[in-house]
C-alpha cells in the first residue's frame, strides 16, 4: 500500500464514522509516522567480508567501516479492537504493519545501499482511563514477521522474528478521532535460519486514530 492509498483509506474510515456516535466504539484504525533505530550491526554475522568496526583506524585500507546502528523513516498502518473492560482498563487486540527505509546504510563513510525494515505484527493492548477523559495512555506487546537488510546486505533481504513492547498516549480531539501524541517502542529482530543474532529495535511514532462505529 503506497502513501496515497494509505491516506485515502484513513480518509474513508473517518468519513464512514462521522454519522455514528463513538461513545461505545471498540474498534479503530490508525496511521502514524514512524522512526526506527536498528542497532548491534557491528557484531552481525552477515557483514560483508573485509568489514571492520568503527574502533579500527579510520584510514585502514584493508577494511570497510560500519556504524553500529541505522535509522529508518516510514509509516505504520494498524487497527485494534477492545473486547473487555476491567474497571478503568480496557483490553484489546492490535495488528499493524510498518514500511520504513533510509538512503543511508550502516557504512561509516558512505551511504552504501541504504537501509530497510518492513514488519507485520500482532499483539495485545491495554488502555487506561484517566481523570481527564480525553487522555488515554496504553501499553502493548506485539510479535510477528519482519524483513530487513540491516543496512548492509541490499539487495538481500533477511527474514526475521520480531518482538516489540509499546507505550503511548492518545488524546481525543473529535468524537471519532484521536491524536496519537507519541508512541515509544522497544524490542528486537532475531533472524530466521542460520545467522543467529539479535538486533535491538527502538521506535517512536505519532499520528491519527479513527474510531469505527462497531
TrEMBL record:
Keywords for the protein's UniProt record, in alphabetical order: Signal
The signal peptide stretch is: 1-25
Question: By what name is this protein known?
Answer: Outer membrane protein beta-barrel domain-containing protein
Amino acid at each position: 500500500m503506497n502513501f496515497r492509498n494509505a491516506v485515502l483509506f484513513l480518509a474513508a474510515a473517518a468519513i464512514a464514522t462521522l454519522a455514528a456516535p463513538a461513545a461505545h466504539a471498540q474498534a479503530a484504525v490508525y496511521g502514524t509516522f514512524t522512526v526506527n533505530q536498528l542497532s548491534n550491526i557491528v557484531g552481525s554475522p552477515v557483514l560483508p567480508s573485509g568489514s571492520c568496526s568503527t574502533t579500527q583506524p579510520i584510514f585502514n585500507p584493508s577494511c570497510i567501516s560500519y556504524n553500529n546502528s541505522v535509522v529508518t523513516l516510514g509509516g505504520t498502518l494498524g487497527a485494534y479492537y477492545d473486547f473487555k473492560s476491567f474497571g478503568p482498563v480496557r483490553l484489546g487486540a492490535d495488528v499493524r504493519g510498518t514500511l520504513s527505509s533510509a538512503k543511508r546504510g550502516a557504512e561509516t563513510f558512505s551511504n552504501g545501499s541504504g537501509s530497510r525494515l518492513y514488519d507485520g505484527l500482532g499483539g495485545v493492548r491495554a488502555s487506561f482511563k484517566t481523570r481527564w477523559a480525553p487522555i488515554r495512555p496504553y501499553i502493548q506487546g506485539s510479535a510477528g514477521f519482519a524483513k530487513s537488510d540491516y543496512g548492509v546486505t541490499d539487495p538481500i533481504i533477511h527474514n526475521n522474528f520480531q518482538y516489540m513492547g509499546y507505550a503511548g498516549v492518545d488524546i481525543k480531539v473529535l468524537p471519532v478521532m484521536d491524536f496519537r501524541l507519541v508512541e515509544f517502542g522497544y524490542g528486537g529482530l532475531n533472524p530466521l535460519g542460520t545467522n543467529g543474532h539479535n538486533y535491538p529495535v527502538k521506535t517512536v511514532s505519532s499520528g491519527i486514530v479513527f474510531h469505527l462505529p462497531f
